[in-house]
Design goal:
This protein is an alpha+beta fold. The protein folds into three domains: about 45 residues; about 110 residues, Uridine Diphospho-n-acetylenolpyruvylglucosamine Reductase, domain 3 (2-Layer Sandwich); about 110 residues. About 30% of the residues lie in helices and about 25% in strands. It has eight helices and 13 strands. A hairpin with a 5-residue loop joins strand 7 and strand 8.
Length: about 290
């Protein structure tokens, strides 16, 4: 097995995919008796050997989906739910997560357990959206924690790195479904840095990418807009955000490393390709990555 980046590999004795909390409890009790250890995994989206083990790897891929929609924009979901699926199912119920990172392939438990976060100075990490955590501890006991009855233990569980046990379900605080308008601009890096504090305060989300050996940067501002805003089609989003911004650059990087003499030419081409554009998307739909 290996993580998403391919820099961590391991060969567990067993790979288990339980379908219930009771099954997880039985697995843990059996492992304790036999002296084995367990590491739970989500989508392997980590640079570190956090989930690597030569004993038992436990995946929660069979424990996915929204369990219930509750009052006051709360929702309960299985811990193995991938963020993209969670966003889609929340949207069907008129809800959205408050904030996400740049990737939507992670599992919900994996995202909170590793401190996944997005941008926005008024927004916390994904874990701060969690109000109740259910997990199976190292003795096979099913435990539920929240800030009211187990404050300190609950805060530890919000970013536990898997050390407290296997998280099974989570209650999260959501928002009513909303739209995000993404504005992409080509701006001088000096101007961005000079006005950075103001820009960050004036936008819900802000990020920028500087181009080495040039005076330019690409900036991205995302803000909530009303329902009347036009939406970017899935096809257009796929071409721009996946094909051009990811696959094309991924192909260019090894070529530039091998042929350094073309580096500056590529950088010039990259700057010329930057365009000022604006697009709108549901915060929880295909472009979940814009909820950053």
């Amino acid at each position: 097995m290996e993580n998403w980046a391919g820099n961590v590999k391991w060969t567990p004795q067993e790979v288990l995919l339980p379908k219930s909390e009771e099954e997880i409890s039985d697995i843990i009790k059996t492992a304790v008796k036999s002296g084995k250890t367990i590491r739970s995994v989500g989508s392997y989206h980590s640079f570190t050997p956090l989930a690597a083990t030569n004993s038992i790897t436990m995946s929660l891929d069979n424990m996915q989906g929204l369990i219930s929609k509750e009052a006051d924009n709360r929702a309960v979901a299985w811990a193995g739910t991938k963020l993209k699926r969670l966003g889609e199912e929340l949207a069907e119920n008129g809800l959205a997560q408050e904030n996400l990172g740049d990737i939507n392939v992670q599992s919900l438990a994996g995202a909170i357990s590793t401190g996944t976060h997005g941008t926005g100075i008024t927004l916390g990490s994904v874990g701060t959206q969690v109000e109740e955590i259910t997990f199976v501890n190292g003795l096979g006991e099913i435990i539920t924690l929240n800030a009211d009855n187990n404050y300190h233990e609950f805060k530890c569980a919000q970013l536990s790195l898997g050390s407290l046990g296997v998280i099974t379900r989570l209650k999260i605080r959501c928002k009513e479904a909303y739209n995000l308008q993404l504005d992409i601009r080509k701006e001088k890096l000096s101007d961005v840095l000079a006005n950075l504090d103001t820009i960050v305060k004036e936008n819900r989300h802000f990020e920028f990418y500087s181009i080495p050996n040039s005076q330019w940067s690409q900036t991205k501002r995302s803000n909530i807009v009303g329902e009347k805003a036009g939406h970017t089609s899935k096809f257009s989003a796929f071409i721009n955000d996946i094909v051009l911004e990811n696959w094309a650059l991924q192909l260019c990087v090894p070529l530039i490393k091998r042929f350094l003499r073309v580096q500056k030419r590529f950088q010039i081409l990259l700057v010329l390709s930057f365009q000022t554009k604006s697009k709108c998307s549901k915060a929880t739909k295909f472009l979940v990555r814009f909820a950053m």
